[in-house]
Amino acid sequence: MTSDIQLNDIVTLIRGDARTALQSLPDGAARCCVTSPPYFGLRDYGHPDQIGLEPDPAAYVAELVAVFREVRRALADDGSLWLNLGDSYASDGGTGRQGTRGQRFDRRHTQETLGETRKWPGAGIKPKDLIGIPWMVAFALRADGWHLREDIVWHKPNAMPESVRDRCTRAHEYVFHFTKSPRYYHDGDAISEAAVSDHGSGNGFRRDHRLSFQDLDGKARGSDTAWNGIGGRRNRRSVWTIPTRPFKGAHFATFPADLPTLCLRAGSEPGDVVLDPFAGVCTTGVAALAEGRRFVGIELNPANLVLARPRLCQSGFGLIHARPAAIPPRPSEVGGYHA
């Protein structure tokens, strides 16, 4: 069962299961999808239709493949999917996801609901193994027709401590960049980063060398570094250092808005529709509105939508009274290129 909440022409929220709610979207409805599904074996969100509590990793992967098959249909032909996933560990008593996304961890749900009652060996998975959930999903989506363009490492400098002594504390998650077609919209300039110079330069240039900007540009073209001599910018690297941010509401698994902001800047233009089929409290939506995009969010838990609505209304567009003209129409050519 689904229920639309049409705040205005800029934001649409759909309360329902992503596996069925996506079917209500027309083909090519969105230019970009930025999302983070419930992680495998992390916690019980208290809904019988939730994803994440499947009996084994293969069943979890199969559910996500079905969801993102519908996402692919709903994307424009030059659209992109940016998928954030964390991993899980196997143990004698069940699963324990390491490297939690936020500053708080719902131990009650994880330990009591998932703890001693969930035992599954899994094919070739031994106790204490890192399961490799993100890559299992990534390869399954590739086999289902997606183009797997890149694995981006989200480095969390303030990662949550772990009570482990026989391995390093995990401080990263993955963001996979998928595309519907081999040629797609991508605006690298919109997410370029400051070029590192002088000591510790990652680009091979030292500013104390007497080279003109033209010389630098020429050298850059002969290397693997994209260099903008005028602005001192370079192509963004595939490790994104973004601190986690605490969320005061009841939804603890909220990623920081900086993460979807980078994704939607690269994969969409102002006026485009950004989709999140696992919207949660709509952090992707907040980022989309701040960047002049429209937003369609799907969320199973109605309590999350209660938390999401004021966040969207405070995001700078005054949604209750906003006019469609607040977001300009998509320009025919504004930056970007079809890779």
From TrEMBL:
<feature type="domain" description="DNA methylase N-4/N-6">
    <location>
        <begin position="32"/>
        <end position="303"/>
    </location>
</feature>
<dbReference type="GO" id="GO:0032259">
    <property type="term" value="P:methylation"/>
</dbReference>
<dbReference type="Pfam" id="PF01555">
    <property type="entry name" value="N6_N4_Mtase"/>
</dbReference>
<keyword id="KW-0949">S-adenosyl-L-methionine</keyword>
<keyword id="KW-0489">Methyltransferase</keyword>
<dbReference type="GO" id="GO:0008170">
    <property type="term" value="F:N-methyltransferase activity"/>
</dbReference>
<dbReference type="InterPro" id="IPR001091">
    <property type="entry name" value="RM_Methyltransferase"/>
</dbReference>
<keyword id="KW-0238">DNA-binding</keyword>
<dbReference type="InterPro" id="IPR029063">
    <property type="entry name" value="SAM-dependent_MTases_sf"/>
</dbReference>
<keyword id="KW-0808">Transferase</keyword>
<dbReference type="GO" id="GO:0015667">
    <property type="term" value="F:site-specific DNA-methyltransferase (cytosine-N4-specific) activity"/>
</dbReference>
<comment type="similarity">
    <text>Belongs to the N(4)/N(6)-methyltransferase family. N(4) subfamily.</text>
</comment>
<protein>
    <recommendedName>
        <fullName>Methyltransferase</fullName>
        <ecNumber>2.1.1.-</ecNumber>
    </recommendedName>
</protein>
<keyword id="KW-0680">Restriction system</keyword>
<dbReference type="GO" id="GO:0003677">
    <property type="term" value="F:DNA binding"/>
</dbReference>
<dbReference type="InterPro" id="IPR002941">
    <property type="entry name" value="DNA_methylase_N4/N6"/>
</dbReference>
<dbReference type="InterPro" id="IPR017985">
    <property type="entry name" value="MeTrfase_CN4_CS"/>
</dbReference>
<dbReference type="GO" id="GO:0009007">
    <property type="term" value="F:site-specific DNA-methyltransferase (adenine-specific) activity"/>
</dbReference>
<dbReference type="GO" id="GO:0009307">
    <property type="term" value="P:DNA restriction-modification system"/>
</dbReference>
